[in-house]
Design brief:
Helices cover 27% and strands 25% of the residues. The protein has helices at 28-44, 64-77, 111-125, 127-131, 153-165, 175-181, 205-218, 280-285, 361-372, 418-421, 423-436, 450-453, and strands at residues 54-60, 83-87, 103-104, 144-148, 170-173, 192-196, 201-202, 222-235, 250-259, 264-274, 302-313, 327-330, 334-338, 344-349, 380-392, 399-402, 409-413. Residues 56-433 form the FAD dependent oxidoreductase domain. Keywords: Oxidoreductase. Required for the assembly of the mitochondrial membrane respiratory chain NADH dehydrogenase (Complex I). Involved in mid-late stages of complex I assembly.
């Protein structure tokens, strides 16, 4: 990765306002003039937004992954690295509705996902040491129960055996054990279950994001309310690259962004991190990714997926759900959990990767809900939120790493619902790529963009 720092010194301007001194005079005209002059000086001292022209690292997107990357970059490099974060929605409108993203689980089959979950568990246990004493993500170790139909029994057994090899404490449950522990679950089409009780539960995702933002700003990251609108290309005639016509390589080391006052600003950088979630594909198009040929022919395969979150009032169901109820995940994609200590439950349906499945998400959800929880047929079910994820339609696994053409453009997007819980490890990995040019802790090389060029999908074979 090319990370030249020769041109990355911040330009510091000190503006000295000259002062004038007046002899004290009782003349009312002079007295009035002095008052106006002091008001003028006070006005000149009013701070206005500062839009930097240079940065070592610019991060496009200040959500969970972008803010985590900023936190880790500043934690490691401190004042030796200038970090600018461009975020067009400083109120984090979508994040305010995140009721389902705060799920902690280790039920994965890819080693990378397991390692990321294990690191997240460690990070969350020591959250105050990392992000501050005032940060409380309200982690609740509910545990997680997976239900498998006859079709998925063998897969569940294989997954649990593999997870146990990584030190994950999961236990298989028979149908009889499930019925005895959780009588409110219909097990007529269930053949096997798995309960995970260690590092499995829920947490407050909004509080985690607040911690990233607060700590990274405290460490010196500069967040700017702005929208990235373009890259500036610079022809590198002396650079040779396989598959590129000699003298035609175009490097990106400057971007354009629109500030909240509508002005366009230019920002020169050494490394750029694309963490724009569902907007990442459009950001990459501005760098001609997916808009040209050769190494630039493949578009970032990320699309927006929306899904609904429902609240279920179980008071009239006749079958109370105890406080020790785990988060339940069905092979149909239906999930359900308690809403903290409140009387209601939260549930939803993981959206299909295929848009044209022939069924609406609402139809699938209602059928799955009544099948698995028939006691809730008379319960009050209300839509409480519609949430958005960045879905990698190629293989549903996130993309992280430098683009093969633009070596100083690091992509960190497409992690879907796993992006929030894995954000500690993803942000740390991004910082390692920028500072060390390689991974030091969790090797995520297989998550790179290159797998799109070689048609080598990375499939997470969990059951939901």
């Amino acid at each position: 990765m090319i990370l030249s720092r020769s041109f990355l010194r911040n330009i510091k301007r000190n503006i000295h306002l000259s002062e004038r001194h007046y002899v004290k005079h009782h003349n009312p005209f002079v007295k009035t003039w002095n008052t106006l002059f002091q008001d003028l000086k006070s006005g000149l001292n009013v701070k206005s937004p500062v839009y930097p022209e240079h940065a070592d690292v610019v991060i496009i997107g200040g959500g969970f992954i972008g803010a985590s990357a900023a936190f880790w970059l500043k934690t490691r490099a401190g004042e030796g690295l200038s970090v600018v974060v461009l975020e067009k929605d400083p109120l984090y409108t979508n994040t305010q509705k995140m009721l389902s993203h705060g799920i902690m689980t280790q039920h994965f089959t890819l080693p990378e996902n397991i390692y990321l979950s294990q690191f997240s568990a460690e990070f969350f246990r020591n959250i105050k040491e990392h992000l501050g004493d005032d940060i409380d993500i309200e982690y609740c170790p509910l545990g997680q129960l997976l239900l498998a139909s006859d079709k998925y029994v063998e897969k569940l057994e294989q997954n649990v055996n593999a997870q146990n090899d990584y030190g994950i404490r999961n236990k298989l449950l028979t149908v009889e054990e499930i019925q005895r522990r959780y009588p409110w679950i219909n097990t007529s089409d269930v053949k096997l279950g798995c309960i995970g009780t260690e590092s499995e539960g829920v947490f407050n995702a909004k509080e985690l994001l607040r911690g990233y933002l607060q700590k990274s700003k405290e460490l010196g990251a500069n967040y700017i309310n702005s929208e990235m609108v373009g890259f500036e290309m610079e022809v590198q005639r002396d650079l040779l690259m396989e598959g590129i016509t000699p003298g035609s390589f175009q490097k990106i080391n400057r971007l354009l962004y629109k500030s909240e006052d509508g002005e366009i600003h230019s920002l020169k950088f050494a490394a750029c991190i694309v963490a724009g979630g569902t907007e990442s594909v459009n950001i990459c198009k501005l760098a001609k990714i997916g808009e040209s040929k050769g190494l630039l022919k493949d578009q970032l395969p990320i699309e927006k997926r929306e899904y609904n979150i429902y609240s279920i009032e179980t008071a009239k169901s006749g079958m109370p759900v105890g406080l020790n109820a785990p988060l339940v995940m069905d092979t149909s994609g239906l999930w359900l959990r308690r809403n903290g200590l409140q009387s209601n439950l939260l549930c939803g349906q993981i959206p299909s990767i295929k848009k044209d499945s022939g069924y609406s998400d609402t139809d699938i959800f209602q059928a799955s809900l009544l099948n698995r929880y028939p006691h809730f047929k008379d319960a009050e079910v209300n839509l409480v939120s519609t949430e958005i994820i960045d879905c990698n339609t190629y293989d549903e696994t996130g993309i992280i790493g430098p683009h093969p053409y633009h070596s100083n453009l690091v992509i960190a997007s497409g992690f879907g619902r796993q992006g929030v819980q894995h954000s500690p490890g993803i942000g740390r990995a991004v910082a390692e790529l920028v500072i060390d040019c390689h991974y030091n802790n969790i090797d995520l090389i297989r998550y790179g963009f290159d797998r799109l060029l070689t048609n080598d999908p990375l499939i997470e074979t969990n059951m939901y």
